[in-house]
Amino acid sequence: MGTGELDREAHVPASGEGKGGAAAPRTLAEALRARGDEGLAALLRARPDLLVPVPGDLTQLATRAGTRASVVRALERLDRFVLQTAEALAVAPDPAPYPVLLALMAGDEGDPDVEAALPRAVGVLREQALVWGDDDRLRLVRTARELLAPSPQHPSPTGLGPTVAEATAGMSPTRLQEIIAAAGLPTTHDPVSAVAALTELFTDRERMGALLDTAPMEALGVLDRLVWGPPYGEVTANPTPPVRWLRDRGLLLPATARTVVLPREAALHLRAGRAHRTPEPVPPAVTPAHEYRPQVVDSTAAGQAYTALATIEELAKEWNEGGPAVLRAGGLSVRDLRRTAVALDVTEPVAAFWLEVAYGAGLIAPDGAAEERYAPTPEYDEWLALPAAERWTRLAGAWLTATRTPGLVGAQDAKGRTLAALGPDLDRGAAPEVRHRVLTLLAGLPAGASPDPDALLARLRWERPLRGGAPDKDAPGTDLRARLASWTLTEAELLGVTGRGALSAHGRALLPGAPAPGTDHPVAGQGNPEAAAHAALPADPEAFNGRRPAHSGVAPHAGAAALLAPLLPEPVDHVLLQADLTAVAPGPLKRPLADMLAVLADVESKGGATVYRFTPASVRRALDAGQAAADLHAFLAAHSRTPVPQPLTYLIDDVARRHGHLRVGAASAYVRCDDDAVLGEILADKRSDPLRLRRLAPTVLAAQADPATLLEGLRSMGFAPAAESAEGDVLITRAHAYRTPPRTAPAPVPDGPPSPGATLLGAAVKAIRAGDLAATVVRRDEPGRDGTSRLVDGELPRTSAAETLATVQAAAMTGSAVWIGYVNAEGAASQRVIAPVRVEGGFVTAYDHTADEVRTYPLHRITGVAEVAEDQL
Q: Where is the composition biased (Basic and acidic residues) (predicted)?
């Protein structure tokens, strides 16, 4: 395929000043000026980038709405059918009457679905200021037309080429006359009428059909290859007879020296008038893949939710005394991620997910020390004190709003660097919107139904066709939105939001405003999926984020917590001791029991029931923590539903009898024991050689090792030594928790400006209206010095100090409004519409229509004043 340059069409400017009250808007600014406040608010809600900063007036708003960056962002948020409508307008005449647009979308044969959906599509484009004008003069904004219109460098998404007039713009008059003669048309006297005659032929269905009936079959085959695009093809210096036949009759027009193009009018005839091969007015349905009983889904999801809580607690215990070091570039090393995965008994990608969930919820963070390490935060202890269901909603809320994307961990960025868990560069602004959209689509399925992943991805691509194909910046050639959707399904299952792939009842409660089971989301079906995502957000962003302090009195996602709580197992206060030195916990243990048992025994297996095993090392660990043998016997007897087995009693007594028999202290290190035979046994054991022991006295051995190494060495030999202080007292090893200083959870990195709230929208609309009033205000006729009337419109007023004072005083007495030019203390000039209330002491106090508040202005800073025409207020 070749390339060429496309001549631009002439357009009416998309912005500019105009007067309200005209029969039809001449510019986009006039069209916006004719809107009500609700219409302006809808535009700013759909395109929040227009609010940064708030435009000074409607002309500025129209100008900003036509900038390339803003239009690209707006086009990316259109669904497929609305985008197809915009693409059809890009190849339609400018302006285009509604019937012309309908013909391009529905074709000659018509399409009831298209006819029903097209008014909604035009309404969306008009609401977002991508299209303006009445139905008899629809205008696509210039920037959107340039982005969507065809050219050799950027073929149109419709596959249509330039018009006959555009393709023949540089053609010689003689060649034009030859073409119309070969097409069977009478010759003309000028190129303009020749182009018009050829265009009329191509748009006349009957005459065009008769012309094609005379074409060779091979020529029709050439047209078939070009009709749906790309419309450009390369030709040789000596083209084949079929190509020559088409070229002679203008069905192929030269684009470059070796490239021809099928004109738009001819292509539309061959397409039966359609701009698109397959219009898609109806979104693809998300079909169920499997259906389960809702109770099964809820119980499965609740079980996974309990596992999620247990995993986060296990992670915090693993890092309780200080976790792995933070890499210099930020994040967790591959080795530490692997160790964490082993400790949690999960794969590395799943471990990365749990790390990111805990980090996003503010439960773990770097400690900020010189040698920075990860550790639980003080908020983790507050979280741990909450009921289980509320703890889960905090995790789920943090996951829903997080822009950090665990699925990227292990991938490489654009520079070939591996993306680390908890590290930078994991934020993807589209992640929260995709998560919400996926869950909302799941909510529209029948209760207990899991989706067909292919149908789900097809629906997401329909809702965001331009974004759906957008590649990840760190993974060229991949569809980021599809990957985010796939990760969402996996992560929702891990977290317990879904069960067996279907949305659970407590997962549905995370999405206020979600559709009822078995119904598609009404907003999504109307081509505004972003509004659907925002509809799922509660009015209180802090509550949605799940990061409100526990003492605030607000329970985020209380509905989800209430639905989940009955499904979670109740904590138990007992275990079942068995003769094989194990204890079975028939459910989650209450906090004091769980903490003590974690010290006294080792976890052997997990599941519905957790199995703990008692070993000499675990019992010694409890004794090192300050427990006596009698305390352990009493603890087990109090919390066991079965009698304490004799082997376990013997184990505790045996370890306790030997515990502390040997004492290790710091000299370099030493061992002392009242029984010199035990010390002799140690010296005779070859395993003690690395400790380099020697006898100092009958009851004392010295070692060339530190106390900790000596303790471990003797324990590996089967002894049970105890550490002692410099005073000879036994040192008690107590478990302690290391915490970071107070840390805030990582803030999401939004994909563009956030959606404005109702308060901001109302204030912005007021400010824009007031600024527009000042910018377009009309002064009353004022007689000039020569006796003629002068009307100043839009210019900054200039009057003398005396005139200014007199006019302002008169306005204060009559309660009328005036237009002033004002220079502030920084020297910035502006124009305002004010209603003076009081004039005294060199100041005027007035209600400022522009700022919508009462202000005081120094008279010496007012450059001029003029009365406002009554019909302007």
A: 1-11
